[in-house]
Model the fold of this input.
Amino acid sequence: MSASSKFLAVGLAGVLGVTGAVLGGVPAAAHDGRHDGGRGSPVTAELPKVPTMTGSGGAVSSVDPLASQVGIDVLERGGNAADAAVAMAATLGVTEPYSAGIGGGGFFVHYDARTGEVSTIDGRETAPATYTEDEFVGTDGEPLDFETVVRSGKAVGVPGTLATWEVAAEEFGTMDLHRLLRPAERIAHRGFVVDENFQKQTAENAEKFRLFPESAELFLRDGEAPEVGTVFRNRDLARTYHTIRHRGTEAFYEGSIAAAIVDESREPTTAEGVDVLGGEMTAEDISSYEAVPGEPTHTDYRGLDVYGMGLPSSGGITVAETLNLLEAYDERTGTGLSEVSETQYLHRFAEATATAFADRNRWIGDVEGVEGVEGVPVEELTSQEFADERACLFDPAAAQDRPIPFGEPDGDYAECGTSGARQPEPAGGVSTTHLNVADRWGNVVSYTLTIEQTGGSGITVPDHGFLLNNELTDFNFAPLTPGVPDPNLPGPGKKPRSSMSPTIVLKDGEPWMSVGTPGGATIITTVGQIITGHVDRDLALVDAVAAPRLSSRNGASAGADLGLAESATGAELGALGHELTDLEWIGNASAIRILGHDRFVAAAETERGFGGSAMVVRPER
Ligand code: GLU
Done:
């Protein structure tokens, strides 16, 4: 489908509200935030979801048409990819508040057309300075109950999203946050129409939100999720954005918003009779937060340069090892991934991801500078030589026993080598959101942001309209294997290991693709599968995004969605020894292919999350 006339008619004026005109149908009932007083402001237009679009002038993709439209509006007004990405992320904070927002963190990967460099911004949440290795161990010596920690102040890390936006705007952008947050503020103020996805996510969180009166009041209607077609306004968040726009990010990291975050995370306001764990965040923890510019990970895959997110994410490293393993399997078997059957492709893919996860779980965490702990061997883990050694375990006729032992990325590689030590799969969530932008000058952004679980900690900062993350549950609560060093235990100021994998691919030094997805640890397998689907399996980008997923993360069973488990291919994978667990959806990805100078294919979901939204500035007819 090309851009519909409705889409074109609504366009910039509607979403940015520059002219004050807001088009779109009037919904049946409006929920007015408690401060609204029913003044009946116009509603932000409801936009259709278009899953793929080809054209010029710049391209965007995300899960949400309002966010995508805001990105297009910024590009049309002369903004570049970083400007559009920040404005889109701020909008997702309004329309996807359970997946992302200023109460969370994320990772921003940027290709700069002027310098030809890919660089990153690490906006991961940090643990309070007082957290120790056994922070999530009870007095009985056992790890605390995971769900109890999720819905608590103890899980809340110092948020990094707003600091990320500031660094992105300053380093790469041309507009300031005052301007870039305006569309999102307007949408929060005017409200947007509740769609199936928002309704479903609210319903799934209702029980958690009922624990926290502020969240129940903001997100629920008489204790339940709002109906599809009604309007959701968040005037508190509109005011928070307004404050940030006028008083700067200091208001968040040092001023009144910081104080509200500290208070609420230390002592969450709960419903009567509900008791939750408090956190230990201090004003100093939050005022000392910095989003950190850095270098991406890199690997060569079939002549493409694949750049991903480095530490504290395991995403870039683990995607790189997966791709290197697939190349090594080609070499060992003498047959390329593009030539084998669908079953053999998925078998190879599952063996590669499970092997890469064995190494991820053993070697990756935020351990730089931690006394007595070796650093993460990033170069070795992403090297072809290490993958070549690890590939010796691969058998085209049978799945390896899970868990696959981790390897030794020590720079000394033989025909075959492994530690022999097997570790269980760590716990993980499934949430988050991803966006891509490519502009007409050749700049690209791949940005994944999150508040960890869908609905985060469930704690809304009173009068500020945003949820606090539960990112600290991404730490392992106790060592994965007693006696084996675990790089992902909590620590003072430490960042929990992430799986987020915003990825930019270059070909011959020019931008070629941007891709990413939500989905906890399945993010890594989904990004790997989209890259191989497009590069090796001849799938159009939108089909690579839509393809049924296989997510083998070195547990006993691999996740599979969209009927793969019950299909003939699923049965053949079963015969090779793969145990599959049927899941509703794995991820909700989006991507952009850059076809050449100022020509793009944007792609989003057709199958999962009730679809995504891809747009270009000037669609081809
Ligand atoms: N917290 C997860 C991570 O950083 C992302 C959230 C999710 O998708 O579950 O890997």
